[in-house]
Structure formats: structure tokens, C-alpha cells
Amino acid sequence: QVTLVESGGGLVQAGGSLRLSCAASGRTFSMYGMGWFRQAPGKEREFVAAISWSGGRINSPDSVKGRFTISRDNAKNTVYLQMTSLKPEDTAVYYCAVKKEPYSIGSYYAQYDYDVWGQGTQVTVSS
Questions:
Q1: Stretch 104-111: mean pLDDT, rounded?
Q2: What is the pLDDT of residues 9-64, one digit of tens each?
Q3: Which of 24, 49, 94, 98 is most buried per CB count within 10 Å?
Q4: Residue (of 35, 49, 44) closest to 83 by Cα position
């Protein structure tokens, strides 16, 4: 049974930074790509960032490009999302997810590319 546990969310002022963590267990972490998504109230869940099993970063959407950086530490079975220059529109629940297949070279952008999700962590950016 695979489990993902996010942490690091909170309340921050606009322009501030946060680092989210996602600890994985139950699967050989280094074999799988990982992704971060977010969902704001009343909106659909959207892709934020992803990193392949080999550490390659997937192109992020323009809304976060240059501000958010994903990384992974296979020794700690953890993926991180470093968020800087935060804006009120970044307010959302952030979810990490693990790819369905090991050593995947397919898409990372859709929710159906992933089969296990964390419970989410709230990020609130005040203006």
C-alpha cells in the first residue's frame, strides 16, 4: 500500500516563500515520477510541477514558472516543492501524487497519469 503525506503548508504574505514536502512509503520511490497539483476553491485541480524518476523536471505552467521548483531526495523518499514570490492566486490545497508506472516516459500533466494521491496541504497567501 502506497501512502503519500504532504506537509509544509501554511499562511504566508504575498512575496513570501514556502517549501512543501511529500513523504512517500510503500513503493520503490526512486523508480517513479512524482507530481504536484493544486486546487483552489471552486476551481478544477491543476498541474503545478513534476519530476521524473531520473530527476528531470517537467515543464511547469506559466503561472508558476520561475517561482516554483520541484526536487526529490530518493534517500529520504521525499519530493519537495519550493515556492517563492508567492501570490494570493497561489492560494489552494496542494497535492502530491505518484505516477502509475515505474520508469515512466509518458505524460506528467494529467491527473489520470497518477494513481496515488496525498491528502493535501493548505497554502494561503495573503495580500
A1: 92
A2: 999 999 999 999 999 998 899 999 999 999 999 999 999 999 999 999 999 999 99
A3: 49
A4: 49
Cell of 38: 493544486
**CB 121 within 8 Å of CB 9:** yes
Residue 100 near residue 114, CB atoms below 8 Å? yes
pLDDT at position 105 over 90: no
Q: If DSSP states are collapsed to H, E and C, what string results for the chain?
A: CCEEEEECCEEEECCCCEEEEEEEECCCHHHCCEEEEEECCCCCCEEEEEECCCCCECCCCCCCCCCEEEEEEHHHCEEEEEECCCCHHHCEEEEEEEECCCCCCCCCCCHHHEEEECCCEEEEEEC
Q: For the chain, how far is it from start to end, CA to CA, in angstroms?
A: 40
Return the pLDDT at 11.
98
For the record, the C-alpha cell of 91 comes out as 492560494
